[in-house]
Design goal:
single chain; 232 residues; alpha+beta; Glutaredoxin; four-stranded mixed beta sheet; three-stranded antiparallel beta sheet; 7 strands
């Protein structure tokens, strides 16, 4: 028996990276972890973003402008998010972040799935964005990072220069809209259980156990997500 988990998320989403770590921790504790299949699905928080936003604006300044808050308050929000990530073993560096469009990054993740390297590529792109400050909207940056995840750089470059995997990304986004998903991460477990947000490891583990044991539906409380209006 296989237990499939479809996860809608975006690279430019701190809660998505935290949610990935918590899901991995839950699977590690799940008695049937070897039977779990995780499929990463595309969700763009800002489909209209340029490849790279103004490099002269810090993330704190961008957040402050977006929410109409003082920059100092935005910096406190960032510090809190950084501390949450650290508790899950992640090293966030918002001061390095180069915000931009993630559509091509999602194409690369779909391309990687065809070669059995989807999770490794997803992890590499998340770390590049959240920790290393890579401009993941730039095609050549994606080629380099995909190569470090095990893909062939020239193949990724050719894919990005074509229309390959565009339809798959759009299909993910259309399905998200059909399901009413407006914030990520969102976990769909066994096609029957929906978990919204970066829930705790215990909550995710509980849902995995329920999904394995029963066909019935279960309601799960919502957790922290990122949406088109920002991260909550």
């Amino acid at each position: 028996m296989k237990l499939r988990i479809d996860v809608w998320s975006d690279i430019a989403c701190p809660w998505c990276y935290i949610g990935k770590r918590r899901l991995e921790a839950a699977i590690a504790r799940f008695p049937h972890g070897s039977a779990v299949e995780v499929v990463w699905r595309a969700f763009e928080l800002d489909p209209n973003a340029p490849r790279v936003r103004d490099r002269g604006v810090t993330h704190a300044e961008r957040i402050a402008k977006k929410y109409g808050k003082p920059t100092a308050q935005a910096e406190l929000m960032i510090a809190k998010m950084t501390a949450v990530a650290a508790a899950d073993g992640l090293d966030f560096h918002f001061e390095r972040m180069q915000s931009g469009n993630t559509f091509d990054a999602h194409r690369v993740i779909h391309f990687a799935a065809e070669r059995g390297l989807q999770d490794a590529t997803k992890e590499r792109l998340l770390r590049a964005y959240m920790t290393e400050g890579e401009a993941i909207g730039e095609p050549e940056v994606l080629v380099r990072l995909a190569g470090r995840a095990g893909l062939v750089g020239d193949e990724v470059r050719a894919m990005l220069a074509s229309d390959a995997c565009k339809r798959e990304v759009r299909a993910d986004e259309e399905e998200a809209r059909a399901l009413g998903i407006n914030g990520v991460p969102f976990f769909a477990i066994a096609g029957r259980y929906g978990v919204s947000g970066a829930q705790s490891v215990d909550v995710l583990l509980d849902v995995l156990n329920r999904a394995w044991a029963t066909e019935s539906r279960v309601a799960v409380s919502e957790g922290a997500v990122c949406g088109s209006e920002g991260c909550a």
